[in-house]
Amino acid sequence: MKVYLFEKPEVWQHARKLTVWIYTITKKIPAEEKFGLITQMRRAPISIASNLAEGTSRKTSKDQSHFSTIAYSSTIE
Length: 77
Fold this sequence. Notes:
It contains 3 helices and no strands. It is an all-alpha fold. Helix 1 (10-26) runs antiparallel to helix 2 (34-56) and helix 2 runs antiparallel to helix 3 (61-76). The radius of gyration is 14 Å and the shape is elongated. The N and C termini lie far apart (33 Å).
């Protein structure tokens, strides 16, 4: 199985685990929150992993840093 460069950092691996955990706990939230709280909670950890992955493909450290900052902001969300 091929491992991509963005999959190697420990922080990306933790973001993936966070995504699975969030999906697990949001299954227990009432259905009426489906389009509010649940949607927001599920999007945030996916954004973390996605931005970390995109940042690894950037050539300059400034671009890489920019995507790390976006990932951090999603963590705060």
